[in-house]
Amino acid sequence: MRLRKILTHFFIMMALTTNISFIHSPNGWELVITIIANLFATILKMGEGRILSNELMASSLVADLHLIPAGFVFYLGNHEEAVGLAVGALAANIISIILGIIETILVTFMEEEE
Amino acid sequence: MVKLRFKKRRKKSLKDIYEERLFEILRQFKLPLLMLHTVMSVGTVGYMILSGGDFINSLYMTIVTVGTIGYGEVVRGSDTPIGRIFTTFLALGGIGVFTTAITILIRVFFAEDFLGVFKAWKMLSDIEKLRNHYILCGFNRTTLELIRLLKKRKIDYVVIESKKEVERQLKESGVEYYILEEPYKRLVLEAAGIRKAKGLVVNLGDDAKNIAVIVTARLLRPDKDNFFIFSFASNPETAQKLEELGANKTIVPQRLLATRLAAYIFHTSSAYISDLFDKIAFGEEPEIDILELQVSEDSPLVGKKLKNLDLRKQLGVTVIAIRKPNGSLNVTITGDTEVEAGDTLILFGHPKRLKIAQRILTEKVQELVGGKENET
Fold first, then answer.
1. Minimal Cβ distance to A47: which of B23, B48, B56
2. What does the pLDDT profile of chain A (114 residues) look like in tens digits?
3. Does B5 touch chain A (CB under 8 A)?
4. Which positions in chain B touch A72 (Cβ < 8 Å)?
5. Which ipTM was obtained for this model?
6. Which H or E run includes A49?
């Protein structure tokens, strides 16, 4: 379904952009929005049995596991550590985006073949 | 323009089907999780706005509100009129969403048997690693006895049974690998590792079902010498048909029992020997075994005398009889008995020694024969 794809990609992009913004100038609001957007993206990818969906889900889960502790660490006062964790999540977010693009290209070609 | 060509997708295996079922269950988790996440996000962000960015307390306040715990207004700003209006709406919408989401999650988890499907998928992955195992179609008391004997000889096996209700019994009996599906399906036999298995035992209690399994299995493994099919049949006529269809050996239980009883009746004075042969044949005597070794026309054993081979001294096994190509059995063998092409040597000894003997007599027999001849 196209709408689901738009939503999933929207949340992945949202997580990526706000994460970059947070890393550039650490701000609690941005981190919270990153966590929320990334969790939405993970849930939307759940159970999708298509090409690269498992890899997308895995990379998204990795980002969650970096961002959630980053949220707590940031509000407990350790801003440096929170930024470090967010950088880790950023790597996973970038991989998510790349995988998403590859998946879209593959699906388009496969549809053309059929 | 570059045109990409995609290879034809491979056929779905039973493992793929179970994997899809797992994904289907996971997909059912999506909606309740989305509902839950939305409520939690709205609550947390709302309290953060009220409190001026207190994330940890806002998250805590949301959980105690939608989880109907209600420890009080712990977030700054939540005790103001605006805060109370927000909490009222959050509780009204959130509590319903929270309980519904949790109920759906628990129901899907148990009703769809998430763990059961996952375990079956894991078992199929483990079965893929098996080699030279036996596939036992049908689970009953006879299968249980067979499993006991196979375990004694450390032979791996996979049970295929269509009745799901026997799962508990399978677990209680210590059956490590089993598939609860119809055994005549190609997918199921492939999932049981038929392409790498040594043999198949068909015991479904119904001749028609047995035929279906034998035919499917023989189509997948046509070579009768490399893949053995043993089947049960209700009468000798059916047994013959099953053998024609692809079974290597068919057993008619009543006839087998009668034969065994007759053997006891005919040898009442030598009951120990009858029992011993039974035990050896049924694998209950771990220290002794019998092996049949066919001598091919180009075998270096042809034309050699048994005393020259001296298998007892060299390999620790004894030739107790020779079956001739016409089917007759020569039990009066001596050291001067000559091995002929097409003979089958019946060897007696420790299972380990027999394995070594089989390997040497089929692969390195030249060294054995040459060495002995030089001595003589």
1. B23
2. 578 788 888 999 999 999 999 999 999 999 999 999 999 999 988 877 667 778 888 999 999 999 999 999 999 999 999 999 999 999 999 999 999 889 888 888 877 776
3. yes
4. 56
5. 0.90
6. none
Q: A43–B24: do the CB atoms touch at under 8 Å?
A: no
Is the Cβ pair A47, B27 closer than 8 Å?
yes
Structure token digits, residue A84: 């470090």
Kindly give the residue spans of alpha helices, DSSP state H, lying in chain A.
2-24, 28-45, 53-75, 79-113
The amino acid occupying position B294 is Q
Closest by CA position to B160, among listed B173, B152, B170: B170
Cβ atoms within 10 A of the Cβ of B83, count? 19
Confidence check: pLDDT of B2 > 70: no
- Across the interface, whether the CB atoms of A46 and B28 are under 8 A apart is answered no
State the pTM of this model.
0.69
Q: Is A102 on the interface with B (CB under 8 A)?
A: no
Q: Which of A32, A43, A113 sits opposite B45 (nearest CB)?
A: A32
| Cα separation, B268 vs B192, whole angstroms | 44
Mean pLDDT of B321-342: 86
Task: Tell me the two tokens of residue B193.
Answer: 């590792």
**Does the beta-carbon distance from B37 to A39 stay under 8 Å?**
yes
CA distance between the termini of chain A: 18
